[in-house]
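@channel sequence for tomorrow's demo:
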Amino acid sequence: MVTVRVFVNLKPSLLDSAGRTVTGALHKLQFDEVADARIGKTITLQMEKFDEERVKAMCAKLLANPVIEDYSYEVLN
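structure tokens (generated this afternoon):
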């Protein structure tokens, strides 16, 4: 089995209201060194074998919205 971890985030040009809320809360807790926070999601796939084209197709068709989100992935083993 191969583990593939997919990371999905809003495109940098889009406002991340949840990230802005987290940044503000961190500042209120005196974590002023945080300049910005962006919220995303991580999806862990267990696959029988790694196939890059299949992972890209999964991301494009279901796991990420290509209009507003970017994705990347890593193969763990």
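heads up for whoever presents: The CA atoms of residues 2 and 77 lie 5 Å apart.
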